[in-house]
Amino acid sequence: MANRWNLSLYRLRDTVDGNPSDFQNVIRDVKGTKLHDPAKPDDIDFEAQLILKVSKYEKPTWAALFDDDFSDPKIPEVRRVDGLLLVQVTVAGKSPIFAFSFGQGRHLLKPEAILPSHGLGVALNAMYRNADDRDHIRSVDSKSIDQNVFNTRRQADRRTSFDSFLVDTRQDFLRSIVGRPGDSGFWGLGSLAVMDCPPIRRWISAILGTSARRSF
Known about the structure:
This protein has a domain at 4-114 and 198-205. 11% of the residues lie in helices and 35% in strands. The protein has helices spanning 118-127, 200-212; strands at 4-11, 15-16, 19-20, 33-36, 47-54, 81-88, 97-102, 137-145, 149-160, 172-179, 186-188, 191-195.
């Protein structure tokens, strides 16, 4: 069976606190983190850095529920590992930074460093690569603002066109979209699922190629 890897991808702002973004100033707090550079930087055509934060050994918070009512449950102490992969790629004279989050790695980023709604644009660009692309969408989440705010999810029993979901583009805000891109190995929106996980440098190149293309 093919492996399925759920990846959260974030596009970071070009500036943070008035300074050009880099691998250091987008991080909330470097204390307690370990930085790792690529083992073979000459094999990739982008800059990358892996940031790991490992917690101390401690029992799960729910373990206290059983301390008094069960005889020596021996719930072990565990450590949590959060990861953040930062990638900087040069596209059309610009060098945007992207972040892939593993575990709770998203919380290593400064909130103000994240560019909102970028994942939605990535999904749309992936599903509509050319004018012949039509029936790729499975569900659409939207928000309508009138006297009340209504959050709506429309889900089709098979992939279809965006027009089939009857979203009022004059009044509704598109919040998320789920479908199948032209590359069948990638699914998703802001979060991506990668099938048959290829070498990391290959799927990064494929994802960033889609992320950097701005049609929407």
